[in-house]
Structure formats: C-alpha cells, structure tokens
Specification:
Tetracycline Repressor, domain 2, mainly alpha, homodimer, 193 residues
C-alpha cells in the first residue's frame, strides 16, 4: 500500500495533469488525496515543497515505466533499448499522459516562477545523461560531447512532441513515428562520426 | 502608429509572456494597453477571442522577425536561409523572448482548454509547411513526406529548446548550437534520401 506522502504526490500529479500547476490548490489536493491540508503541510511544508516533490515523483515514475521490460522477452540490442526507452514516453496510457502533462506544466511554470528551475534543470540533466549513455552503448566510440548533444536534442524533441500530442495537434502514433525518425537521423550522424 | 486593436494585442502578448495565460485578466490588460475594458470586449468579444487574436498576432510578428533580411547583404543560399529563419527564433531580444514565452503559454494552455486547439494546430501546420518549403529549396528532389517529417521534427525541437531556454535550464547560445546540429543531421538524412 502506498504511504500517505506517496498518496498525496499521486493526487498532486493527477490534479496538475488535469488543471495545471496554477489550478492546484492545497484544499483541493487534500480532497483529491483524501487527507487533511495539515498533513500535506506537515509532509511538504508549502506549495513549492509540493511542486518539487511532485517533480521528483513523476521522474521516478517515468524512470519506472520507461525501463520496464518483460522478463521473458529476449534481450534488446542497444539500439532497440534506446528506441524502447524513448518511445515509452509517448503512449496512450493514463499514467504516461498524466506524467507528461504534469512535466510540461512544471516546465512551463518555471518560465514565470524561479522556484522550480534548479530542480528542473537537474532532472533534465539526469535524463540527458541517461539517454547519452544509451546512445553510447550503440556507438561506444563516439565522443562524450557528441553523445550529449544528440541526447539533448532527442529529449528536447520529445518534450516538444509531447506538448503537441497533449494539446491535441498531433496523434500519438505520428509523434512516435517522428521520434523514431529523429533517433535514426541522430544515429546516422554518429555513424559518420 | 499602431491601431487600438494592435495596441491591445501587443499588451496581451506582454502580459502573457510575463505572467502566463492564466495570469491574464481583462482589467489588467486594459490597464497595460491604456484602453477601457469595454474597448477590449468590443474588439475581441471575450477572453477566448483575445487569446485567439494574440496567437495570430505573435505568429505574424515571428513571421516578420524571422524573414527580415538586411537589403544590402549578399543573398543567402537555401541552407543559410533555412538556418537563419530557424535560429532567429532563439535570440536574446525582448521581442523574441516575449513571443516565444507567449507561444509556449498558449501551447500549454491548450492541454487543459480546448478553445485554442484548432487555431494552434492550424498555426503549427502553416509553420511546418514553411520550414518544409525551405528544406525543399535545399533538397529539391526530396519527397514531400520526407520534407514534412523533417520540418515537423525541427519545429517541435525548436519548441522544446525554447521552453528549456525560457525556463532557465539552457543558455540561448547552446540552444542555437543544438538547433544548428539538428539542421545538419536532418539535411544529411535528406542527402542519403
């Protein structure tokens, strides 16, 4: 069973994904989580505390669903692993949609509100490093700076595609196809060295 | 001199870029534009009308600053033209920053509010076609679908990079460098056919 604080963060991700960060009121979050506002303040101190922990929560959750593998399936090649991990961020599943919407909201809130910037920059950096490591498994001799640039582009593209998908302008299958195409051109770029 | 309605839209773009769509109140917009709320309702009917016209306004303005060329400069090659047009969306200039922030806000608002979706999808399509046409000038024999996919990726990447830039996680020069790299890998992809 989820702990009380996890229960609050799950509710926060749901509320943010449904109405945005600016639609998040602590009273409403308390109702959604089925706890008192006092308990929320006890665990997270203030609104910024809630947002920072929600960011961490959705990152952990994305980490989980993008690295989940069927234990009976044959092992993936490095290239399949890379594609698999990135494409799992674009799925018509409630959890993924909610996670992407909440991430996009936290990113766009940071344009106006400096409180989240540092956490967001750190989370982005971790994500870029993970994708650079996956690219490095496909191209073990590519220089680190080249891998990092490709990873920065693929993750920023994924954010851009997610926003188009969630704002209704791009079907999820088309978004996946475009991302797959980007992986192909980036890998070809690494091939040329 | 700008007409009254342009004056209102300039103020709307400023307010949205400063505090977000959800921070836009008509009274405040009236004060920022130096007009009455009645005049705003007269020109734009309601809040959705204001947002839709602001979207159009920032698109026209982006069109203007990305196609502006020094008349005395030597003509650009198709590839230079492509790079120039895309890179002008990432500049440390008040007008560009404001435009990008307002665009990102309208995009992220559309995740929660369907009213803007159609206009946004149409504006994105126009933008994708323009970039596909520029790519087609570099690669006149590339199939239209290939050019469109590359243009969708480059514009979605530009949106993703802009959000990172505006939310403080990515210096503008690095964002430009990454975009230039993406143009290079996409063009190399078209070279291979």
């Amino acid at each position: 069973m989820a702990s009380r604080s996890t229960q609050i963060l799950e509710a926060a991700a749901r509320v943010i994904a449904r109405r945005g960060v600016r639609g998040l009121r602590v009273e409403e979050l308390a109702a959604e989580a089925g706890v008192s506002t006092g308990l929320i303040y006890y665990h997270f101190k203030d609104r910024t505390g809630i947002l920072r922990h929600t960011l961490e929560f959705i990152n952990d959750r994305a980490e989980r669903y993008t690295t989940a593998r069927d234990p009976d399936a044959p092992p993936l090649s490095p290239r399949e692993e890379l594609e698999h991990t990135l494409l799992l961020e674009l799925q018509e599943k409630e959890e993924v949609r909610e996670n992407s919407a909440a991430w996009g909201e936290l990113r766009s809130t940071a344009v106006f509100d400096a409180a989240l910037r540092e956490d967001l920059a750190r989370a982005t950096l971790v994500w870029v490093r993970e994708v650079a490591a996956l690219l490095g498994r496909v191209h073990p001799r590519a220089p680190a700076v080249t891998l990092t640039s490709a990873a920065e582009r693929l993750t920023a593209l994924l954010e851009g595609l997610s926003m188009r998908w969630l704002s209704g302008g791009l079907p999820v299958d088309r978004a996946r196809e475009l991302l797959k195409g980007a992986i192909a051109v980036e890998l070809a770029g690494l091939d040329r060295g």
